[in-house]
Amino acid sequence: NAVEPINSLKGGFNLIKDQYWLFVGICLVAILVGSVVPLGILMGPMMCGIYLTFFSKRRGLPIEFATVFKGFDYFGQSIIATLIHVVPILVIIIPSYLLFYVGLFLVLPGPRDEPDPSKLFFFIGAMVVFWLVIVCIMIVISVAFTFSYPLMVEHKLSGVEAVKLSAKAAFANFWRLLGLSLLSGLLGFAGVLLCYVGIFFVFPISFAALAMAYEQVFGLDNTQQSPDLPPPPPVFT
C-alpha cells in the first residue's frame, strides 16, 4: 500500500511542470523511436531513457534532451525485459483471435442453412466474457511489469531480475497501481478527444506519475544529488 495514485499524479506534474515542453519532446521522440521496430525492441531502451530523465530531474541534476538516448546503455537487458512482457501477451492474443474467427465461422449459417439467432447470441455472450477475461489477464501482466525499467535504471538489475522484483512490488500494490493506471487512462482519453494529438501532452505526466510511484515503493538513491552549494573557491599556490 505504498503507492498513492493521486499524489503520484500531482507529484509527477509538479516534477516536470517547469520543463514541461522539454519532457513532451523527450516522451514524443522516445515513443516514436521505440515504435520503429516491431515487438518493442527499441521501446525498452527508450523507456529506460525516459526514466533516466525523470530521476535526474528528481535529484536536481541538469536535464538534457540527449539524456533519453542514454537508455541504450541498458539495451540488452531492456530487450530481455520487453520480451518477457510482450511474448506472453502474444501467446494469449494470437490464439484468442484464431478461436474467435473459428467460432464465428462455425456459428454463422451456411448458404443453405436456416439462421439460428440463439447460437449467435450465445456466441456473442461467450466472446464478451472471454475477452473480458483476456483483458484482465493482460492488465495483470502489464501491472506486474510496471517497475521493470526503473529498476534497471536505478539498480542496474538484469532484465529477469527487474521483472521479478517489479512483479513482487506491483502485486503488493496492485489495486493502487490499477487505480493510477485508470487515472492516467482518463487523462489519455481526454487527450484523444483533442484530435488524438492531445495524448502526447499527457504522456509526460503519466510517465512522471509512474516514476513517483516507483519512488514511493523503492525510494530514490540521492547520492547523486546535486548540492545547492556554490562552487569551491580557486586554490592558489
Describe this structure in words.
- The model is unreliable at 225-232 (pLDDT under 50).
- It contains 9 helices and no strands.
- The chain is an all-alpha fold and 237 residues long.
- The N and C termini lie far apart (57 Å).
Compose a concise summary of this entry.
With 237 residues, this protein is mainly alpha-helical. The chain has nine helices and no strands.
Largest sheet: none
Q: How are helices and strands ordered from N to C?
A: HHHHHHHHH
Low-pLDDT runs: 225-232
The tally of beta strands, per DSSP, is 0
Q: What is the CA-based Rg, rounded?
A: 22 Å
Share of helix among residues? over 70%
In what range is the share of β-strand residues? under 5%
Question: pLDDT average, as an integer?
Answer: 87
Number of helices in the DSSP assignment: 9
Secondary-structure blueprint of this entry?
Blueprint (H helix, E strand, L loop, with lengths): L4 H12 L3 H15 L8 H16 L16 H33 L9 H28 L3 H8 L3 H14 L1 H20 L5 H20 L19
Helix pairs in contact: 1-8, 1-9, 2-3, 2-9, 3-4, 3-6, 4-5, 4-7, 6-7, 8-9
Key traits:
9 helices, mainly alpha, 237 residues
